[in-house]
Amino acid sequence: MKRISPAIPQLAERILRFLYSQDYYLERSGDLEEVYADLVEESSPFRAKVWLWFQILKLCFELFRMNIVWRFVMLKNYIKIAFRNMKRHKGYSAINILGLAVGFVCTFLIVIFVQHELSYDQFHSKSDRIYRLLNSSREEPGIQSALSASGYAPRILNEFPEVEEATRFFLNVGSADLKYQEESRTVNGFIFADSSMLNVFDFPITIGNSDTAFDSPNSLILTEDAAQSWFGNVNPIGKTITYLRGNLRIPLNITAVLENIPSNSHIQFDYVVSFPTIKNFMGENALDEFTINNYYTYVLLKEGTDYRRVEEKFPFFITRHFGQERADQFSLHLQPLENIHLNAAIKWDLPTTGNKQYLHIFSGVALFVLLIACINFINLSTALAPLRAREIGIRKVVGSSRRQLLLQLFGESVLTTLTAMVIALLVLHVLVQRLAGLIGQSLSFNLINDINVFLILIGIGIIAGILAGIYPAIVLSAYQPALVLKGSVTKGTRGTTLRKALIIIQFSLSMLLIVSMLIVINQVNFMKNTPLGFDKEQVILVSLSGSIKQNFGVFRNKLLTQSDIQNVALTTVPGRVRTSSGYIWPGGENNEEGRSFYTMFVDPRTIPTLGLEIIEGRNFSEKIITDVTRAYILNEAAVKALTWEKAVGKPFRVWDEDTGQVIGVVKDFHFKSLHHVIEPLVLRIKPEWTWNAAVRVSAANISKALQTIQKVWLEFETAIPIKYRFLDSDFDRHYHSEERLGKLFGIFTGLAIFIACLGLLGLASFSTQQRLREIGIRKVLGASLRNIFTLFFKEFSRLVLYSLLIASPVTYWLMASWLGDYAYRIRIGIFPFFAGAVIILTVASLTISSQIFRAARTNPADIIRYE
Amino acid sequence: MTKFITRNEEIILLAILKLKGNAYGVSIRKQIYQDMGDKWSFASIYQPLDNLVRKQYVRRIKGDPTAKRGGKSKFYYEVTPDGLRNLQKLKKAHEQVWAGIPKISLENGK
Q1: Residue B71 domain-assigned?
Q2: A66 contacts B47? CB cut-off 8 A
Q3: Residue B18 domain-assigned?
Q4: What is the pLDDT averaged over residues A425-430?
Q5: Mean pLDDT rounded to a whole number for chain A
Q6: CATH assignment of the domain containing B16
Q7: At residue A256, does pLDDT exceed 80?
Q8: pLDDT number for residue A271
Q9: Would you say residue B2 lies in a domain?
Q10: What is the predicted pLDDT for the residue at A752?
Q11: Measured between beta carbons, which residues in chain A are less than 8 angstroms from residue B74?
């Protein structure tokens, strides 16, 4: 449309456009323009302009007044009222805030923990393209192993155009003995890796050159912490640390320093040595062969590559290098880097692997605690609601809409939640490490640094505030002003059913937690105390050094002369038994390849030292020379698996040895943790593969025996300090995660019950206060203290009883499915439920009794004299 | 439920009624000038107008754009039946409140 009149200034247009939505802008700007045009004609353009700006100014002012000032005034009022309410009900507000704060601390802690678990390995910039090589053999269908041989990486890199880089790690070194000048130490986190590791992973170098750091063999890269511990603030580049392995002294030249490895990396180390160094002790061919699956292989795929395409080509790769026959026997797979940490199903995975099931359990428990805290809030707010009925009524009469009221009441709950949240965040900020220690984790949380986590926490807080606030707000804002102001809203009876239901939920959850805790603890104790078929007490395990291994016979004899040492064996120990392949016997299914069995490499003294029991045949004997290569002892499970009637005398051999025979059968014992059933096991003598001495000491004085062993050790070895463990704790380390779970349940159960009781305390105190007059009248009419006490006590204890009834079957079902994972487990039985019920009933009774007593003992004259 | 109407809102409602379908910002302002002799600012017209719309006593109808307005649409206002009912009540109330006050005392202030 053509413009026939002078337009209002651009700036005015813009301001109006800013102030109003499209429709209103059109109207208002149009109206102004119309009058403006008239004015320009009637008087002067200048006057018109002055008028226009004056009008706009007034519009702005009006908008400001309506939108901001009044809202602010109301907000001020809301906040004032909120604080007045808090002050008026100090006790209840404290219960609310304290309960919520404790709930938040628990939840936040778990959130931080879960977040940490989920963030594993995501700090590598190429993490979405990194995969780990897995292999699975036909012998164990469905089981994938993380270990691979050293020959794969170079060939995969050469033959697959999709692969950008490949790198190998030798991670299972265990502890290593290092020496710098006169100082020698035994360190953990000592690994070997290809130089390409620095290209695949993001382990930034702080000092040194990443391109040349790994060029030559015998190079060593340290993390900052390790460098600090050896050299202080001196630049370590160019210094030489000696690696003592067996009889070898390998000098390692420090070429670079790495940033400390983040705690959310599944590969953890402090020392990384260049891969070719392995040749020193594994032989010249160690870097390129296919017999020893001892390494972890990672490949970096080119951008945009689907790893399944690469996996599809692996069978051809295997055929090319091993022939058609082997291709049927094993297969290769790729595992995305980010899936490694929480996938517990992989065999020979690193010990840092997390547990998805526990992640779920932890989250569930945290949610329960938060729920209990929110329920407190709902219960107390609705109970106190009638006290505010007048305020709500007046507000409605004066013209407040339902929406405004909802917002106000809602805002109040959010305010309470926020207060609790601030307290919780501060507590976390200060105590996170100590708290995390309680659940066996090392976590860090910094309000300022971890913005993402912080935002998640705030989000949870707000959601909890909304959940807790929505019901009270609806109830309160629904009051009819006419009724309220007449005073006909009966105090404290509204929503009692709901409150009771919520209390039942609270105590059901508490019951669930407490019974679960008791069952977990029972299972842990059961696993630790079940007879294992061998005697795990009073056995000290000593890791042998190279020179002692060479003179083991002398070392052992020397030990045996000591009075407090009963027996010494060079042996694999239960809890650390692995499979070994290549067993062949006539009638076996796959005679050419051999079959693999769990195998303990032992010596003739193993069976007496560990307290095993021979039930058929004989033990190995030092006097029979052929026992070293041609004698085998099986366990009962193996005999059963081989379907032999009588095992002793049956021919049996390993693929690279002459045929020998089974000389004995040992009674089944738990060589693996009680998570697993007892599987077939072979015992054979193979001193080269055994680096552990098991020393049985006399019960009287273990610490003295330990000193004796140390003294003897020093006679044979001065360069390397002795390393020892106790067999029982070494075996029980398999139960760490269960112990941790028990501990977690313990802490959270305590907190849950605490919060639930806080709520109960509040409600009991409130409801007795409300019924003071009733109590007074009852007393006047002759009720005794006991009568009144029973009256009130019944009401509350009934709720607790209901919750026990509800919680028990749920708990039974949950815990039965948890126990289902264990090959050897406790029967749940009635005891945990009984104990849980007693604990909850006692605590709850104590809580309410105090309130009831106080009310019951008030003088009726004080209460009813105004009636 | 009858909602409260302020005096400004009342004046504007009456102006809209008088304008009989031609009530939009500028014409309402003109009508008030004619009735009261005061030049109201647009701000003091829009604010009660918006309130009336919110109370559903007045309907807002989009009209055609005109050249004089730089191609911007007019928005017409129309009193709703609710608004009319409220006005009638208001009128009755006024009459009752004013009834029995002699003209003379008004003029002399006695």
Answers
A1: yes
A2: yes
A3: yes
A4: 85
A5: 84
A6: 1.10.10.10
A7: yes
A8: 92
A9: no
A10: 86
A11: 27, 30
Nearest Cα of chain A lies from the Cα of B4 at a distance, in angstroms, of 10
With contacts defined as CB-CB under 8 Å, which chain A residues touch B68? 4-5, 33-34, 37
The first and second tokens of residue A539, run together, are 């056995």
- Give A433-480 pLDDT, tens digit per residue: 777 776 666 677 666 667 777 888 888 888 888 888 888 888 788 888
pLDDT score at A804:
87
Minimal CA separation from B62 to chain A, in Å:
9
Give how far A763 is from chain B: nearest CA, Å: 39
> Would you say A254 and A239 are in contact if contact means Cβ atoms under 8 Å apart?
yes
Written in H, E and C, the secondary structure of A524-568 is HHHHHHCCCCCCCCCEEEEECCHHHHHCHHHHHHHHHCCCCEEEE
B74 contacts A23? CB cut-off 8 A = no
Report the pLDDT averaged over residues A672-701.
87
Question: Binning pLDDT at 50, 70 and 90, where does residue A133 land?
Answer: very high
Task: Say which residue, A274 or A414, is predicted with more confidence.
Answer: A274
For chain A, the structural domain boundaries read: 10-84, 127-340, 356-527+736-864, 539-732
Q: What was the pLDDT predicted at A2?
A: 45
Q: Of A149-163, A216-230, A493-507, which range is least confident? A: A493-507
Q: Which residue has the tokens 């009209």?
A: B63
Chain B residues with CB inside 8 Å of A32's CB? 42
Give a yes or no: residue B1 inside a domain: no
Average pLDDT over residues A805-823: 90
A397–chain B Cβ distance below 8 A for any pair: no
In the prediction, which pLDDT does B108 show? Answer: 61
> pTM of the prediction?
0.72
Q: Which residues contact A150 (CB under 8 A, 6 or more apart)?
A: A168, A286, A287, A288, A289, A292, A294, A295
Return the structure tokens found at A608. 């007496």
A649 Rama sector, left if φ>0, alpha if ψ -120 to 50, beta otherwise: left
Non-local CB neighbours of A337 within 8 Å, separated by 6+ positions: A121, A124, A127, A128, A130, A131, A132, A298
Residue A1: predicted pLDDT? 43
**What is the residue range of B82's domain?**
7-108
Q: Give A863 to chain B, closest Cα distance, Å.
A: 43
Assess contact for A724 and A705: CB atoms under 8 A: no
A262: confidence class by pLDDT, cuts 50, 70, 90: confident
DSSP H/E element including A273: strand A271-274
- Binary contact (B41, A37; C-beta < 8 A): no
Q: Are B26 and A34 inside 8 Å of each other by CB?
A: yes
Instruction: Give chain B's residues under pLDDT 70.
Output: 1-2, 104-110
Alpha helices in A43-89 (DSSP H): 45-64, 70-88
Chain B residues in contact with A36 (beta carbon < 8 A): none
Cα–Cα distance list, A261 to A124, A129, A265, A501, A593 (Å): 11, 20, 7, 50, 42
Q: Fill in the DSSP letter of residue B4.
A: P
Alpha-carbon span A848 to A766, nearest angstrom = 11
- Phi and psi dihedrals of A177, rounded to 5? -100, 120
The pLDDT, as a whole number, for residue A487 is: 66
Residue A30 predicted with pLDDT over 50: yes
Q: For position A470, what pLDDT does the model report?
A: 83
Helix, strand or coil, per DSSP, at residue A660: strand
Number of domains observed in the structure of chain B: 1
d(CA A361, CA A379): 27
CB-CB contact of A246 with A549 (8 Å): yes
Report in angstroms the alpha-carbon separations of A838 from A745, A791, A800, A844, A845. Answer: 18, 21, 11, 10, 10
Classify residue A689 by its DSSP letter. G
Q: Which token pair is A501?
A: 């239901």
CB contact under 8 A, B69 and A23: no
Cα–Cα dist A700/A537, whole Å: 12
